[in-house]
Amino acid sequence: MGRKEIDGVHQARTLASLGTIAEAFEIPSPVETIAPYGRGLINDTFCVEAGGTRYVLQRINGAVFPDPLRIMSNIQALDRQARQHADLGFRVPALIATRAGDAGLRAPDDSVWRLMTLIEDAGSLPRIEDPEQAREVGRLLGRFHTLLQSLPAEALGITLPGFHDTPAYLAGFLSALARVEGARNDPQIETCVRFALLRQGLARRLADARDRGEIPVRVTHGDPKLDNILFDRGSGRAIALIDLDTLQPGLVLHDIGDCLRSCCNCSGESADGHTRVRFDLAVAEPILHAYAEQTRDWLNPQEIALIPEAIRLMPFELGLRFLTDHLEGDRYFKVAQPGENLRKAGIQFALVTDIEGKVDDIESMVSRCFQAP
């Protein structure tokens, strides 16, 4: 039997086992089709069709998420909250229970699976093309935070320990730097290392404000980048935030900063040269203005005052993570070629540099957006 035939047999067996897993959930039987779905790098994701309805089947990566069933519990809490506040118009992919009544399925190989409804006729955008799309992003994130601000943070479990713990990321970077002999002999690495070392104080700004009780811990999305925002294909409205694995207690400032980092670097993480990287204020302002319309009544003054710091912090944090992963041999972020994480670190640090040059404009923008209507 040739390699191609062997691969075909393996794929057929895999699809058959996936069908068995899917049919363990409360959906019509038999499963009609099942195929790989999406571009996610963490979980294995498949689109399942049964009874004329499409679903998303996922194997949760236990190497990343130590307690996969806690993720489902958090999503259920979000779903209950969304049903109680249906007026906010926020859509949540619904978890489908197993035939045994559980939120997820633990397979014989100890992998954990979940099945969710697929939000039809919706998709993400590769980039923000106009101010109305930007406003939709801000409205959606604002509605999401408003939906959850009345939910006690302690009602949700921690699904990804250490996520957005910038001081811990800094400590990990310093440790990796000390272990990798001769790393700084590479000029590109040295440039990034010097950049990070000069900004070590930035890592503790939000954590210190939290520890002093100036900003509260709330329920957050954790990863509200543009890829995770679904737009209705008919109306163009932003209707859902997906990839809810990192839904957990945190700081809304991390969400705000990360959303703006993702949406306002129009060159993206694949920029050819760092000179093209810039923080686009023309995209940032409509996002933040629409966000403020939803949240200014309940965000506390210190949270608003620290938004410029969050905008600067989040690309610094991501750049630090890319740089650390490069030093450690690309163990966390998947790479297509050697040096990719180092290049991505440089892009995020270039974004920080551009943000630092626009700090006065950013502070003025925040003031305009959050002033009373």
TrEMBL record:
SUPFAM superfamilies: Protein kinase-like (PK-like). It comes from the Bacteria. GO terms for molecular function: transferase activity. InterPro entries: Aminoglycoside_PTrfase, Kinase-like_dom_sf, Pseudomonas-type_ThrB. Keywords: Transferase. It holds the Pfam family APH. Residues 34-265 form the Aminoglycoside phosphotransferase domain. This is Aminoglycoside phosphotransferase. It comes from Thiocapsa marina 5811.
